[in-house]
Design a protein that fits this description.
The chain has 9 helices and 15 strands. With about 400 residues, it is α/β, with parallel strands linked by helices. It folds into 3 domains: about 10-110, Beta Barrel (OB fold (Dihydrolipoamide Acetyltransferase, E2P)); about 135-280, Rossmann fold (3-Layer(aba) Sandwich); about 365-405, no CATH class. The strands form 3 sheets. The protein has a 7-stranded mixed sheet with strand order 5-6-3-2-1-4-7. Strands 9-8-10-11-12 form a 5-stranded parallel sheet, sandwiched between helices. Helix 6 (about 230-235) links the parallel strand 10 (about 210-215) and strand 11 (about 240-245). The N and C termini lie far apart (about 205 Å).
Length: about 400
Amino acid sequence: MDGVNYTVTELMTATADAIKERLGGAVWVDGEISGPRESRGHFYFDLVDRDDKGAVSAKVPVALWSRTRTRVDQKLRDAGTVRLEEGVKVRIRGPLELWLAGGRLQLSMQDIDPAFTLEALESERERVLALLRAEGLIDRNRMLTVPAMPLHIALITADESAAQADFMHSLVESGLPWQVSLIDSKVQGAGAERTIAAALRTAQRMNLDVIALVRGGGSRLDLAVFDHELVARTIATSTIPVFTGIGHEIDTSVADVVAHTANKTPTACAEALIDSALDIVNRSEAAWADIAEIVSTTLASERERLARSARHAAIGARTRLTVERHHMIATTARLSRALETTVKSERQTLDLFAARLSAVDPVRTLARGWSITRTASGTVVRHVADVSAGDTLVTTVADGTITSTATDTD
């Protein structure tokens, strides 16, 4: 049989020696943490590379033994920003060892370079910003119009978090009638970018005025999710204006850059919305005050004009009454004189008629010897034909009446 023959131990030992000879001991390795876990004080994870589609293209198991972990943890605490968590890109140092009994290679972690992680975060941030600029997405959400009274808000944050409490407290204190729809979401750690993007898409399907994406303060690593391309792209293409309130005072996340309005804290985000609503309230109140002042001024002017008109009317009425009174007195005098003349003329006419009437008065006629004969029915006898034989006749003379019976007519 051709070739060298090995036992398993000999093969694995030769392989371990070859690795040690090839690498020369401990090496620095760059990669992304995947599947971190603890056991009996030791810390294990896989260090992976990913292809353009995010699939794992290579990996190596890593073991951080408890005896070394204390020193590594202290170095991380001193850096203040890096933790060994899912998805974090790290540069670690240690020898690649072959575990003979287990039959697998494993990197024994002895050291870490926190600066590498921060540089990787910044590099990824710049890559995402450059990509969004090239696609014209940086200002897309900012071009959307915020309603005059943005009272219906979708709040995206971790439920029962301090960020939620601070945001809601500010809204309640404003006294305005807000309608807030809370969409619970992870805001840091592995997979947080997917839950934030899903929450943003959910909010866009609701009848809302504004989306508020908030979280409290944290380290650069804690806030790395807000630099993620998926989160930034979802904000940039949102059909509803997005207000951010991410708790950092120095750095600006990519989410802030593409949002409609960026604020430093959840409270500041709430206050920005309050200011927007109160601006309309104040302008409305100012408009009503202007209207009230115009109405008051107009009423005062019209009241004065009416008073002047009333005074002029009163003076005119008094003048007219005086003129008419004089006219009435003159007319009355003329009528009185005319009436006196008319009465005198009519009296003379009446006297003339009375004289004429007296001349034909039957009493006076009877006194001169005349008489008047009537039938029994009172009809004056003027003709012979008015009387028939046997009729009773009544003759009136000056001093009385005579009753007779007609015996014949001729």
